[in-house]
């Protein structure tokens, strides 16, 4: 039977050979962490290669994702549907083994990890979701939710600021089933990290409230095993295991140097490494006895069967809880969801409340919070401003971990990346709030939401210069454009309470990616709509105010600027101009409509088009054509009452009227 070192060497040489064949990649980390990975995956990790989506599996996250061949080797050796041919296609076009692990491409990959530190943040989200579900659904004698989250991190992950945000948060909450293993090899791309990374990492995590196991030899299987066992017995804290390793372990000339980090070893060094480690096999060849020892299919099948037996017993004793958990795992909304939404939409239309859209958002949550226990809300220390809390809130508190609302603290980036992990785990629809301008802090986590196509809802309030006195640092200008041009991200900017209901409905029902809700601080007027118009809101853009005949010009607006557009249209109508006002709360949804619908809203024969939105102008040129005008901004805001800021920056009724008139003159020429 192969020994531990031989099993780890299978990882090393699959990684070395794949990187060499690709002429690109990072062999050093897989070589250095192979012994740790072998112990974790063979002796502790509970998973089923036959069913990568088994819900009660342990989650494994490779935060230092540049070492992706470590994970691909583990998946292949364990028996996942990832062949030697797949490994040979490492980093090639349309392969199942891209340069960094990506969700939905490779079976067994839990998290897309590229930007360092975000894998750790997702792991915190995964661990939090597990403990919240366990506390909600487990019953005496029926631990139906019971798994660990393991995460590998490198020096780069710990240098990134997000590691502080989520490390502090995980320690505060006491996420005891989160086990993070640090690859302490002291090397990054530029060389020995001692010149730019001298933190006392164990003391740092102790200060967060973690259980820290220091001084583990990352090449000693017994020491690694003892450390993981100790971590699994911890009942109150997350654990950081500090493993001292050698990057490029086994490479005689490259070990412990940056040469092993981010490029192939080369034929000569690979030959020397084979000789040094006694690996006599050709590239991509693994002996049968090593495959047999590694293969986890039978063990995984048995583990899931045992859980399925427990699940059947649970269903028999607690049928309502079981049905609710299954619904949430399957990402299905309650059977009466459509009726709930339709009733709320019509109630809101009848009431016509003149409120800020952030308040309309809170009203929505008040109305549906009891029906959707999977809605897991929160805010980056702005609950009372974002109005993300509601009357059904049960706050998640340290160590208790019950509830549906998380106070994330001032951690916009960490909150957003943790929500990705919560969404990936399943069983929850996470939403979190901050000011729109602070989306800059969270930018890369939003991008990862889109890349992974996760149902994460970002509630961004104070969405324009309309927030007034706080001034230009808090007044978003370019942010809507940034979000709108991010692939797979849907952006809604509702103009009143009715559109806010539809925006939330769209966000909750959208399974293929994240949604951003852009909401006002200031109160907004309410608009009456026919039944047809109420339906058309869901299509992203519709005619809010029509003229008596075919329009001479069209004004397009979003959010708080609808008020300006309607006032300008009324003034132009009195001047004899036939004006159509189009509300465009969600451009990406509108652009996905069929051409017949789009043309019915924006006829090609109407060239006089004016857009008004208190933000960057460039995005809108695709909808206005060469004769259109945009009333927007290309400068930062001002500190003053909202009405004064709008006037000072030229977002006014007069400006819209003038733009329409100019556009009509151009058309007449």
Quantity of strands, as a count: 18
Structural class, by secondary structure, is: alpha/beta
Q: What average pLDDT do the residues reach?
A: 97
**pLDDT < 50 stretches:** none
Taking all Cα atoms into account, the compactness measure Rg is: 28 Å
Beta-strand content bin: 5-15%
**Roughly what percent helix?**
40-55%
Number of helices: 27
Question: Would you kindly provide a brief summary of this structure?
Answer:
This protein is 44% helix and 13% strand. The protein has 669 residues and is of the alpha/beta class. The longest helix is centred in the middle third of the chain and has 21 residues.
List keywords for this structure.
six-stranded parallel beta sheet; 669 residues; five-stranded parallel beta sheet; alpha/beta
Protein topology:
Blueprint: H1 4-22, H2 28-43, E1 59-62, H3 68-78, H4 84-88, H5 118-137, E2 149-154, H6 155-159, H7 162-173, E3 178-184, E4 187-188, E5 191-192, H8 201-208, E6 211-217, H9 221-233, E7 239-244, H10 267-277, H11 288-294, H12 297-317, H13 319-329, H14 337-351, H15 357-368, E8 375-379, H16 383-387, E9 405-407, H17 412-425, E10 429-435, H18 439-452, E11 457-461, H19 479-484, E12 490-492, H20 497-509, E13 515-518, H21 531-537, E14 542-545, E15 553-557, H22 562-574, E16 579-583, H23 587-591, H24 595-601, E17 609-616, H25 621-624, E18 629-633, H26 642-648, H27 653-668
Parallel strand pairs: 1-2, 2-3, 3-7, 6-7, 8-9, 8-10, 10-11, 11-13, 12-13, 15-16, 15-17, 17-18
Antiparallel strand pairs: 4-5, 14-16
Helix pairs in contact: 1-2, 1-3, 1-10, 2-3, 2-9, 5-7, 5-17, 7-17, 12-13, 14-20, 15-20, 17-18, 22-27
């Amino acid at each position: 039977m192969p020994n531990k070192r031989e099993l780890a060497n299978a990882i090393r040489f699959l990684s070395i050979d794949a990187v060499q064949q690709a002429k690109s990649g990072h062999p050093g980390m897989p070589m250095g962490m192979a012994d740790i990975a072998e112990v974790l995956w063979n002796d502790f990790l509970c998973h089923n290669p036959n069913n990568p989506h088994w819900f009660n599996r342990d989650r494994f996250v490779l935060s230092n994702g540049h070492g992706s061949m470590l994970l691909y080797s583990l998946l292949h050796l364990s028996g996942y549907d990832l062949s030697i041919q797949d490994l040979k296609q490492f980093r090639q076009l349309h392969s199942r083994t891209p340069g960094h692990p990506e969700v939905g491409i490779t079976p067994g990959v839990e998290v897309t990890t590229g930007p360092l530190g975000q894998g750790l943040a997702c792991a915190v989200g995964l661990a939090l979701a597990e403990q919240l579900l366990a506390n909600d659904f487990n019953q005496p004698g029926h631990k139906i939710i019971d798994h660990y989250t393991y995460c590998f991190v490198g020096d780069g992950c710990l240098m990134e600021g997000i590691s502080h945000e989520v490390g502090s948060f995980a320690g505060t909450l006491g996420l005891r089933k989160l086990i993070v293993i640090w690859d302490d090899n002291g090397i990054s791309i530029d060389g020995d990290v001692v010149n730019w990374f001298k933190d006392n990492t164990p003391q740092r995590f102790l200060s967060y409230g973690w259980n820290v196991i220091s001084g583990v030899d990352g090449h000693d299987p017994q020491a690694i095993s003892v450390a993981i066992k100790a971590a699994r017995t911890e009942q109150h804290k997350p654990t950081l295991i500090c493993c001292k390793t050698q990057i490029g372990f086994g490479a005689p000339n490259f070990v412990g140097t940056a040469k092993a980090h981010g490029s192939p070893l080369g034929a000569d060094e690979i030959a020397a490494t084979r000789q040094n480690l006694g690996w006599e096999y050709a590239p991509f060849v693994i002996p049968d006895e090593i495959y047999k020892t590694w293969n986890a299919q039978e063990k995984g099948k048995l583990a899931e069967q045992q859980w399925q037996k427990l699940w059947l017993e649970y269903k028999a004793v607690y049928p309502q809880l079981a049905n609710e958990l299954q619904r949430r795992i399957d990402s299905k909304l309650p059977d009466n969801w459509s009726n709930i939404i339709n009733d709320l939409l019509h109630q809101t239309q009848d009431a016509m409340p003149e409120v800020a859209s952030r308040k309309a958002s809170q009203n929505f949550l008040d109305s549906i919070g009891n029906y959707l226990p999977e809605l897991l809300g929160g805010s980056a220390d702005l609950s009372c401003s974002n109005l993300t809390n509601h009357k059904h809130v049960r706050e998640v508190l340290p160590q208790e971990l019950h509830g549906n609302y998380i106070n994330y603290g001032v951690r916009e980036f960490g909150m957003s990346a943790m929500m990705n992990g919560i969404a990936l785990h399943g069983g929850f629809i996470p939403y979190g709030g901050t000011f729109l301008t602070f989306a800059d802090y969270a930018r890369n986590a939003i991008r990862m939401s889109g890349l992974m196509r996760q149902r994460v809802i970002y509630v961004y309030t104070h969405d324009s210069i309309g927030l007034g006195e706080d001034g230009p640092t808090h007044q978003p200008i370019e942010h809507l454009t940034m979000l709108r041009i991010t692939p797979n991200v849907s952006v809604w900017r509702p103009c009143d309470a009715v559109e806010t209901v539809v925006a939330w409905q769209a966000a909750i029902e959208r399974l293929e990616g994240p949604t951003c809700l852009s909401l006002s601080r200031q109160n907004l007027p309410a608009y009456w709509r026919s039944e047809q118009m109420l339906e058309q809101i869901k299509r992203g853009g519709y005619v809010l105010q029509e003229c008596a005949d075919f329009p001479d010009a069209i004004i397009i607006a979003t959010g708080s600027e609808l008020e300006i557009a309607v006032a300008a249209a009324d003034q132009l109508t009195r001047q004899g101009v036939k004006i159509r006002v189009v509300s465009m709360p969600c451009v990406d949804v509108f652009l996905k409509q069929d051409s017949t619908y789009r043309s019915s809203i924006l006829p090609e024969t109407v060239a006089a088009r004016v857009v008004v939105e208190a933000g960057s102008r460039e995005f809108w040129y695709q909808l206005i054509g060469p004769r259109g005008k945009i009333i927007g901004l290309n400068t930062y805001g001002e500190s003053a009452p909202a009405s004064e800021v709008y006037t000072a920056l030229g977002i006014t009724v007069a400006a819209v009227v003038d733009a329409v008139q100019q556009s009509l003159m151009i058309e007449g020429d």
